[in-house]
Amino acid sequence: MDPVPVKTGRRRAFQVVTVVLGGALGALALLSLFAVVGLDEGERSDHRVHDLATVIQLGLLLGTGLIVQAHMPERKIALLHLVALTMVALGIAYAISGELPFALIGLVIVAVLIWLHPARERLLSRGRFSIPLGILIVATAVPLAVYALDQAEIQRAGGLGIHWDEFHWASMAGLALGLPLGGIAAATSAAGWRIAAWLVGAAGMATGLGWLAFPDHPSSLGVSGGIAALAGGVLFVAVAEWEARRAARS
């Protein structure tokens, strides 16, 4: 049997799944964005930091990462890495928050994406590992891990409020873990790594801006944390671009 039609069919299936799933996640992120900017008439004003985390995770990292790789996925392997690592971060966060059933959902999605990917035999391929980006990842991983553990502990403690009911603390833990883990998708220099670097950097910037804009909201690290996250996101993108230009000259 000719293997080409099978691969072509798998490629089309992958594209359909990424566009549909990415679009659905993007739509959910858009609803959360309305709350962040106040278009909900303030009904969720106390949840703006949490809703912003939803925008970043579902819209920026997952939704955009899925849709962009639908076109020529073989050349954007780093975006599948980014989506997978973001899902893993959410899974870990929900697991340590005591919400194990929800932790497994993302892993199932990742398994389906890997199975459908038209170049799955090359998913572990990478280029030269970026030491500067790796240093940034390690430097941010420690404080973000501490923050994630704190948020997970609040979720485990339980409560009667909507923050607990909507798993806000677990989601914040997932965002904190997802930033350094997602950074690995850029640092390994797989195909499409610059797009992954920009998405991770933008996620860090958006997190910082949210903390600056809403310093007194639940889960916000305030002005100092906001400045650190914003600066970290900008620095990550700057270093990634420097690495890309250096590679182009060599």
Explain what the structure shows.
This protein has helices at 3-36, 48-69, 77-96, 100-116, 131-157, 162-165, 168-187, 193-213, 222-249. The chain is built from nine helices and no strands. It is mostly helical.
- The overall pLDDT average reads 90
Helicity, as a percent range: over 70%
Uncertain runs: 1-6
Backbone CA Rg: 18 Å
Give the terminus-to-terminus CA distance: 44 Å
The biggest sheet amounts to: none
**Could you tell me the number of beta strands?**
0
Give the structural class: mainly alpha
How would you describe the shape?
globular
Order of helices and strands: HHHHHHHHH
* Proportion of beta-strand residues: under 5%
What's this model, at a glance?
By secondary structure, the chain is mainly α.
Annotate the secondary structure layout.
Blueprint: H1 3-36, H2 48-69, H3 77-96, H4 100-116, H5 131-157, H6 162-165, H7 168-187, H8 193-213, H9 222-249
Helix pairs in contact: 1-2, 2-3, 2-7, 2-8, 3-4, 3-7, 5-7, 5-9, 7-8, 8-9
Notable features of this structure?
globular, mainly alpha, 250 residues, 9 helices
